[in-house]
Every structure is written in C-alpha cells, then in structure tokens.
Design goal:
heterodimer, A: about 325 residues, alpha/beta, Rossmann fold, 12 strands, B: about 300 residues, two-stranded antiparallel sheet, 12 helices, about 40% helix
Chain lengths: ~325, ~300
C-alpha cells in the first residue's frame, strides 16, 4: 500500500456534483449579495435558491453573451453573480464578453462550467479546451477540484475570494475517489502533495488525480516510488510546488482531462523550462475533439481512446524516468 | 414642461465648449474617432450639463446616474466633458491616447474617473446598462450590503447602500449589427427596466460605409417598439428636442418600459470637412484639416 500524506484517506468513488449544490446553498446564506444569473441551464444549488431565495435569480435565457455582461454589470453594482452552463456556452460563446465586461475590471463574477471529455452528449458538449482557453486570460482564477471534499472547499473559497473565478466541473461520470479527509485545508493557489515519491512526480488535476492514484499502485508493484501533486488551482499556478517536485525527481508527468495544448501540461512545461529542468511527459487529449460515450458502460473506451487511464499514466511515468536518464538530469 | 430659451442657449454654448475641447484633443493626439464623437456631442452635453444626477465632488457617488458609452470609440466626447465637471485635470485633454493617460483610446472604467463602463468591443454596452438597471431594481428588492468592486478598491471597500439611479446607454447605429443588442433588448423588456434609457446616435454611417448598405437596421423604431420598449425619434442636434424628450422619458418612470431615444445625427457634425466625408476615424491629414476648421469655428 502506498503511503499517503496527511489529510489523505482514499475512499470509494463519490460524485462531486452534490458538493457544489451543498456549497452553493452555504454561499447564498453567507453572502446576501449572491445572484444566480441563469442561462437556461440551471446551476449548482439552484433548487435550494428557488425554494429559499427566488428573488436572487436573474434568468437570461439561452443568450450567454448577454448573460456574461449582465453578470459583469451586477458585480459592478456590488452583487456577486454566478454564471453556469457547459463551458462551450458560458465561456466560449461569451469569450470576449467575459474578457471585456468581467475581467478587464476584475468584476466579482463566478463562472461554473461543465468541461472535459467525459460525456454522452457528443462533440459539441464534451469540451477538451476549457482550461486552455481560460488560462490565457488575465485576472482569471481557475479551480478544478479532485474529489468531493475538495469540490465543496474550493467552491466556498471561490466565494470568499473577491474577483473573477472559473470553477471547472467534471461532474459527468466517472466519479473520482474520495481522496481527502474533512479537515483538508484547501487554499486557492496552493498545490497539495497527496503522496511524496523519489522516482517521479505526477502533477494531476481533477478526475485524473484518481487515475494517478491507481497508477501509483501499478508502479509500486514494479518497485517505483512515485509522488502525486494535486494541482487544483490551475491559475495562479503553484510554481514553487512544481519547482520543488522537479528538483526532487527530475521526472514529471502531467495528467488532465482536456487538451495537452495550452492546458495544465503546458503550464507546467513553462515553469520547468524557466526554472527547473526536468523530463516531462504530458498525459491528456491530443489535438482532437471528443465524442459520445455511454457514461455507465463505455467510459473506459474513452480513456483508452485518449490515453487518460491509470495504465497510460503509469507508462508515461516510466517514459519520463527514461528521459531523465537520457538527459542525464540529477535529482537533489 | 418645455425648456426655456435661456437654458437651451446656455447648453448650446456648452456644446460648443465641448467641441472646442474635442478639437484640442485631436490637435494633440493627431488621430481619433472623429465622426462618431462629433455626432454625439449634443446628446452628451445635454446629459452631463443638465439632465444627469451627478456629484461634482464624488464621481463614485452611489446615487449618480450611470452612463454606459457602448460606442466607446466616441470617448473623446465624454473626455471633453470630464474636465469641465472637475473629475480630471484639464491638461488631460492633451494626453489622449498617451501611455499612462486617464484618457485611453476607448473609454475605460478602470482608469478614468466618471466612466462607468469599459467599452471598445461593440455591442455589449446595452447588456451592461441593462445589468446596471437590473441591479438598481435588485437593490430595492433585496437591499443587501454589497461590495463596490473596482480594480482600485477590490480588497477593502464595503458600503451599505440602496441607491436609486437611472442608466443611460449611448449606442451607435453600426453596433446594432451585433446580435447581442437584441438579447439585451429582450432582457430589458422582460425585467421592465423603466430606469434604462438607450440613446441611439443614429449618424447613418459605419466604418465600411452607409449603415443601410452594410447591414440595414430599419425600421429601427418599429423594432424597439415591437420588443416592448417606449420609443422616441428626435433630431439629435436639436438641444430643445433632446432636453424635452429626456424629460418626457423621465416622467414616464414607473410605466415598466425601457426607453429608446433614436437621435438622428450627422457623422462629423460641427466640422464641415468631417461632415462632408462621413469620416469614421481620422489620422494625420484628415485630422489636421478638421482641427484647423474647428479652431476657426470654436476658437
């Protein structure tokens, strides 16, 4: 059995969607200026809001461009608006609106969106580029929780932070392991080392942390001691933690449920190139779109198709170690 | 109530002062969006020097009327007004387009006192204005202790207020090509935003040519009416018509309808050479001739 760090106790798979619902109800009770700006796609906690704070709902209909700017204006007047939809709609459809009418003035707007390749709705809805296209926008904070505990904590932290935040949700199947204990101290901008390891480090985000945990077991049987760094804040990126991991193992694998172009993998690559040379292998979707898969039965096929499963991560770790030897990089 | 000839004459003088300031801006910048700036001068003057509820000592006064300049390339018109109110020093007129200037190329909330909306990407201002108008209604409904958030005061400022204000949105005719306007127009009607007044600076020309050739928007008044707005058409260079209509609209507050004033204007109004070519954007030569004419007319 792998030896995990404090606040980590691996449990059975638990869906994260409910955590956001619970967190949203808490946020609404803590902050009386929360407004649910709807785009005909519901929102975490919306049933609670409808029942308890119906006056806090502003419904914009299927008009995401208008919705994003309405949210910006409400924030300009002191409210804390939440926007929600699939990432192709709430973000990509309103990309310039978010830039111009939310981010330029750092308005206190929270965006939650369903993003990632897991899904049964097809190429239009199963989005690979959600992290890549938001990461390049100034003033944007991006969160992507690994499990149900972190999802709730990150959601609450998003509300406490004053400024625009994108909360990425991979709430379709498969459910991630329950990873953290209830006293896990989540902080925006801080990566958390789930496990230390001397041979290599997997820097993973969201559901891929679960696959990384499975990969560790595979690698352990082969005598490799591999660490996992949970990168739940994509921006601002915890560069210090990445540099520390690079110096310790000089072999890094990034893992994300999205495109390897411009996502977490590239973010880590920049930090390594500028600060701490290390062999790097990026696990993620190559330059292609997703497709439908039945969530209950066929997700493993999708994992195989895109190379996102534990076995793929384990293979990538060995590749990274081989590269390290090839590059003659020396561990601290 | 009709406005007296004295009030109208005084405001026409103010409009000429604004034009003189705009000429000064162009004299130094050597470039800018001349046509759409000049067409909106009379509207901007009527608003800032007469109609708006403002605090000359506090540009962030919560009760102030909001102005959303959706056609933010016409920022020079409002830049020409701000020093007269006292929100920025008059020397700023010489620093338009400059590095670290409060007068950026397009009107920006984050750096210019008295500007409520960071614009420049066309077709979004009416949504922003509708959002501000909806916020005013929500404040009345919910009365929360909100955070007034700007780039400058993000971490600290918490104010309790329940402000009452109107929102004026100045929209260009060309930017009505953008579909988002019609999303905002539906939104404003749905939420009965009678505190929202949209003024269309209808100067009939956009960058590539006449609006009716680029993308016809007629029948414009009928469109707003059919979307549930109270709609008025005026001569956008008649101070009397502008003032009377603004007052008429103000008196209708409470009827549950957002209002649209379609102001027929002339691109480049007040500078003959700019009027003659329906100038959109001016650099160097176009500016030089216009500035020379402007100096002769407005001093």
């Amino acid at each position: 059995m792998a030896k995990y760090n404090k606040y980590v106790q691996i449990g059975s798979p638990t869906a994260t969607g409910g955590a956001a619902d619970t967190a949203m109800a808490k946020v609404c009770q803590k902050y009386p200026n929360v407004i649910a700006v709807l785009e005909d796609m519901g929102m975490p906690g919306i049933e609670w809001i409808k029942k308890n704070q119906p006056d806090h709902i502003v419904e914009c209909g299927i008009a995401e461009a208008n919705g994003a700017v309405i949210a910006g204006a409400l924030a300009a007047e002191g409210f804390m608006p939440f926007l929600h939809s699939f990432s192709f709609a709430v973000i990509e459809r309103a990309y310039n609106q978010i830039r111009q009418s939310i981010l330029v003035d750092r308005f206190n707007v929270k965006i939650t969106a369903r993003d990632g390749v897991w899904g049964d709705l097809g190429i239009s809805h199963d989005i690979v580029e959600g992290l890549a296209c938001t990461r390049i926008l100034p003033n944007m904070v991006i969160l992507n929780a690994a499990d149900v505990v972190e999802a709730e904590k990150a959601y609450l932290a998003m509300a406490d932070y004053v400024g625009p935040v994108y909360f990425r949700m991979e709430q379709s199947a498969p459910a991630p392991f329950k990873i953290f204990t209830d006293d896990y101290p989540f902080e925006i901008g801080k990566a958390y080392a789930i496990k230390d390891g001397k041979d290599a480090t997997i820097i993973a985000t969201g559901y891929l942390v679960t696959e990384a945990i499975k990969a560790i077991d595979i690698l352990e049987k082969e005598g490799l001691d591999v660490g996992i760094l949970n990168m739940s804040t994509i921006k601002p990126l915890d560069e210090e933690a990445i540099i520390k991991a690079a110096e310790q193992t000089r072999a890094i694998v990034t893992a994300e449920n999205g495109t390897v172009i411009g996502g977490l993998g590239d973010a880590v690559a920049s930090v390594l190139a500028e600060n701490a040379p290390a062999a790097l292998v990026k696990v993620g979707v190559e330059d292609e779109f997703s497709q439908s898969a039945r969530l209950t039965a066929e997700v493993d096929e999708l994992k195989d198709l895109f190379g996102l499963g534990a076995r793929d991560i384990a293979i990538s770790v060995k590749e990274a170690i081989a590269k390290r030897e090839q590059f003659k990089l020396v561990r601290k | 109530m009709a406005h007296s000839p004295e009030v109208i004459a005084e405001l026409e003088d103010k409009a000429n002062l604004v034009r003189r300031n705009i000429v000064r801006i162009f004299e130094n910048s050597k470039q800018g969006h001349a046509g759409g700036t000049m067409s909106s001068v009379d509207i901007v003057t009527a608003l800032y020097f007469h109609h708006l509820k403002l605090d000359k000592k506090n540009c962030d006064w919560p009760e102030r009327d909001r102005v959303v300049l959706s056609k933010a390339h016409a920022a020079e018109a409002i830049y020409a007004v701000l020093p007269e109110i006292g929100y920025v020093p008059k020397e700023m007129l010489d620093k338009y387009y400059s590095y670290k200037s409060q007068f950026q190329g397009h009107a920006d909330r984050w750096c210019t006192p008295g500007i409520d909306y960071s614009g420049g990407s066309l077709g979004q201002g009416l949504s922003f204005a509708a959002g501000m108008a909806k916020a005013e209604k929500l404040h009345t409904l919910l009365n929360p202790p909100p955070l007034r958030v700007t780039a400058a005061n993000i971490p600290k400022l918490i104010m309790k207020y329940n402000p009452s204000y109107r929102v004026f949105c100045i929209v260009g005719d060309g930017e009505l090509n953008e579909g988002q306007n019609w999303e905002a127009i539906m939104f404003a009607a749905k939420y009965k935003l009678d505190n929202l007044i949209c003024i269309v600076d209808y100067n009939k020309f956009q960058l590539d040519g006449p609006v009716e050739m680029i993308m016809p928007i007629e029948p414009l008044a009928d469109k707003f009416k059919d979307f549930g707005w109270g709609t008025y058409e005026i001569n956008g260079h008649s101070m009397k018509e502008i003032l009377d209509t603004l007052e008429l609209v103000n008196n209708l507050y409470g009827d549950g309808k957002p209002k649209c004033i379609i102001a027929h204007t002339v691109k480049g109004h007040g500078i003959p050479v700019w009027e003659s070519v329906h100038l959109h954007y001016s650099r160097l030569e176009g500016t030089t001739i216009g500035v020379k004419e402007g100096r002769e007319i407005y001093g």
